[in-house]
Amino acid sequence: MPKDELEIAKQARAAAERAKNFIPREAWDPVRRLGEVRDQLRLASQQLAERVTEQFQQGNQRLNEMVRSRMRPAFEVVDVFRSPEIQDLIQRAQEAFARLDAALRDTLQTLQHERLVSR
User: For labelling, which of 62, 77, 93, 100 has a CA lying 20 to 30 Å from the CA of 118?
Assistant: First the structure.
């Protein structure tokens, strides 16, 4: 603490002591009790805030666990679709569908030809 601040603190303490001497002793008891009540209220509000924070964290943790448990099957499905076997199956299906157009066209032409021949 710089010298000026130290001097100010000393002067403030001395002024408080002088003021204390002017106030009757019986007036200090209610003031002291008021200070104790204030301290208890401050402690109670602090404890309440801690309890609310703790309950919020517990609720948040439970919610996270619930979301994880609900999402796990979806992630497993995604993993299945990402597997090499399924990727190969998807690729073969895409190739088959790409050939389907030509196969259907050939079948249609054959059917039309059969119809013309049978007339």
Answer: 100
| Domain boundaries defined on the chain | 1-76, 83-119
Residues contacting 86, CB < 8 A, separation 6+: 80
| pLDDT at residue 70 in the model | 87
Helix, coil or strand: residue 27: helix
HEC string of 20-48? HHHCCHHHHHHHHHHHHHHHHHHHHHHHH
What is the amino acid identity at position 27? A
**Residues counted in the chain:** 119
Is there a contact between 92 and 100 (Cβ–Cβ < 8 Å)?
Answer: no
At 84-97, the pLDDT tens digits run: 998 898 899 999 88
In the numeric block, the tokens 């979806």 are attached to 74
Q: What are phi and psi of 104, to 5 degrees?
A: -65, -40
